[in-house]
Amino acid sequence: MLVIGNGESRKDIPIDKIKGTKVGCNAIIRDYIVDHLICVDQRMVDEVLKYNTKIYTRADWISKYSNFENVTTVPKLIKQGTERWDEPFQWGSGPYAVLLSAKLCKGPTVRLIGFDLHSITNTVNNVYKGTSNYDPVDKNAVDPRYWIHQISTVFDWFPKLRFKIYQTQDWTLPESWKKHNVSLDSLDNL
Asked: pTM of the entire structure?
C-alpha cells in the first residue's frame, strides 16, 4: 500500500512504476493513475470527476455528487478528540489519505511518500503550486501542525500496522511520529 502526498520531495519519483495499491491526493491524478483519490476541497472534486478512479470527499457535500458512482465519503475518524484539529472538517486530504490507506491495507506496511510537512523555503511546498485550484507559487508555506497531529493520530489508531516514510536525507521525523510502528527510510530505497 502506497499513500502519496504532493510534497515536492516526490516530484522525481516514477510513481507509475511502483507496484501495489495507490492512494493519492487531489491533483496527482493529472499525472498518475491511483486506485483511490482523496479530495476534500470541492474545487478539486469538480476537476477530477472526469477521471475513472474512486474519489473520496467530505460527507458535508456528498449530495452534490450523488449522480457520480465513483464518488464516496472519506472514512469516518476512529475517534474524535476535543481540539479543533480533531474535528473531521479540519482534516485535510493528506491525513485522510493516510487513514484510508491504513483501513484498506491488507499487508503489514503502509508506505508514505510526498509528506514533506515543512517547506525548505518560505513558500508553499506542493508539486502543483501555481496551477488550477492550488495556491500561487509565492504564497507563504502552510503551517503543518494539524497534518502532523492528525497523521500521528492515525499511527496511534493502527498500532499493528507499520508505517514507513520515505524522505530525503535531510528530512527529520516529527517528535510525535517517533513511535514503535513508524520508520523513516531514504527515497533512494523506495
From this structure: 0.96
- Calpha distance 79→110 (Å, rounded): 20
Q: How far apart are CA 86 and CA 107, in angstroms?
A: 27
User: Strand 71-73 and strand 182-186: pairing?
Assistant: unpaired
CB 177 within 8 A of CB 154: no
Distance CA 101, CA 28 (A): 16
Which secondary-structure segment (H or E) carries 73?
A: strand 71-73
27: its cell numbers = 491533483
The cell for 118 is: 515543512
- What mean pLDDT do residues 94-105 have? 98
**CB-count exposure of residue 132 (10 Å: 0-12, 13-18, 19+):** exposed
DSSP 8-class letter at 134:
S
Residues 52-81 have pLDDT tens digits of: 899 999 999 999 999 999 999 999 999 988
Distance CA 97, CA 42 (A): 16
Q: Name the residue among 98, 73, 72, 74 with its Cα closest to residue 5.
A: 98
